Amino acid sequence: MKILVPLKRVPDPDTKIRLKADGSGIETDGVKFAVNPFDSIALEEALRQREKTGAAEIVVVTIGGEECAEQLRTGLAMGADRAILVKTTANPDSLAVAKVLAAVCRKEQPAFVIMGKQAIDDDSNQAGQMLAALLGLGQITFVSKLELTDGNRRARCSRETDAGIENLTISLPAVLTADLRLNEPRYVSLPGIMKAKKKPLEELTPESLGVSAASRTRVLKLERPAGRKAGVRVKTVDELIAKLRHEAKVL
Amino acid sequence: MNRILVIAEHDQGHLKLATFAAAGFAQKVCAAAGGTFDFLLLGSGLAAAAEGLRRSGAAAVLVADSTELTQPLADRCAQVIADTVRARAATLVVAATSTFSKDILPRAAALLDAGMLSDVIDVRREGDDLTFRRVMFAGNVIATVQLDGPIKCVAVRSAAFAAPAATEALSPVEAVAVDAAALPKFAEFISRETKVSARPDATEARIIVSGGRALKNAADFERLVGGLADQLGAAVGSSRALVDSGITPNSLQIGQTGKVVAPDLYFALGISGAIQHMAGMKDTKVIAAINKDPDAPIFEIADYGLVADVYEAVPELMQKLKT
Predict the structure, then answer these.
(1) In terms of Cα–Cα distance, which of A27, A36, A232 is closest to A120?
(2) CA within 20 to 30 Å of A14's CA: A246, B59, B217, B322, which one?
(3) What is the pLDDT, as a whole number, of residue A41?
(4) CA distance, residue A82 to nearest chain B CA (Å)
(5) Interface TM-score (ipTM) > 0.90
(6) CB-based contacts of A131: which residues, under 8 Å, 6+ apart?
(7) Could you state, in order of their start, the residue ranges of all structural domains in chain B?
(8) Do B142 and A223 touch (CB under 8 A)?
(9) What pLDDT digit, counting tens, does each position of B231-246 carry?
């Protein structure tokens, strides 16, 4: 069984995002980058499924510049077996990412794909669903529990929705997207890092896969939202009630 | 001319209010750049829901009614949406942001080879094109974007758009033919674990009472957060910390990866104010925060901050609000 786990390089979630002065993008100088936290959860789940089912090859893949190899090495250090970097200088939107990943999937033929439900940079929450559509496969988004069944030909999943937990089964191959509570990803160990250095990292390009990484989305400008100002401190519950009733008039 | 398809969302036939905000977005596009919009309702047994969509200025209320669509499964729904977009030559597909639209709209977009924007908060016309504003980086960045291609998909934040004024004229209801046998059926629905709650949904409430890490267990959450909410007819919400520790169900989570809300009043009780949480509620009109830690980041965005232990302040608040 082969499991494909796409990883995205994003600014570390604890980083304060700064914009370039001309609004053309975010400031990347001196910014620490990490694997998108939801993708780490997806990879952790792949590792756990391998531990449960015995044999599985786990392939991590990302799309971007040379610098993204760092996040693939992190994935390898967590326990993935090999890595694929689809090199491009384009900044692909979700649909372009899905097209590139679909080409990788056609080449690799994984038993299933598991990836984060959203990347914490553009917060789009689209790529997994688009990938499933392009491959003509089923999808389960926001997975909080995963169990492979029927000799790894089906999966039973719980997913987190606005209304509560939903339980579904799905035929594999399929695309699954991981939500926060699926698991708690392991830390990378020193032996893991040493081993990762020797694991294969293959470089491809969108062209070599026969697809384009061109986006339909054109970002014209980035800016800061109008900030909220801190209000006043009240000293007592009585004062709070008075303010809410008579000043803000919301009670 | 825009031909817009607004995907209506409902829960077992009960329309979600956010659907009308999506219609408000469609109306804004039509006012700025010309065009008309239709609603598309998917499910089974939809007569009442369809009726509820007839006074919002839509050219038509399209109803895809099939027992295969009883559960909102992405594979089936996305196929029906894509087929309808093609049949109606729609140029813009709109839904309000929710776990329903997040699941189905990107899939429909890819079936149509259309680009998609999530979390759209504004739209205007620029020449022959539409320019959108959307939120990213946990609410810390607003991007101005355009979409190329003959079909565009957008998910809009419901708080950013006003519902259309009710019309005298009724939109006609039209059935959309669904070839149930031809729908993809990769997923099968088993069950839904929904807590039946008499409280309003956080995305639809005027007041939200939300609790964080200071609440030590489910009983305390229910007594303090739930108690205050019930007294005010408010919805309840929760920070991620409480969901992770099993004190509250995931459906209550407010934040970057949970629900995004913008009520008139948000009580943040014992919530420290991680950026991921604030991303989900900082468009609230009035934020009232109670936290024992005077340096909690929530106070940087709260209109009214009270440094106090929620275990003491909230019972006092409940007592005094009775008078």
Answers:
(1) A36
(2) B217
(3) 98
(4) 28
(5) yes
(6) A98, A101, A102, A105, A113, A115, A175, B110
(7) 2-182, 207-321
(8) yes
(9) 999 999 999 999 999 9
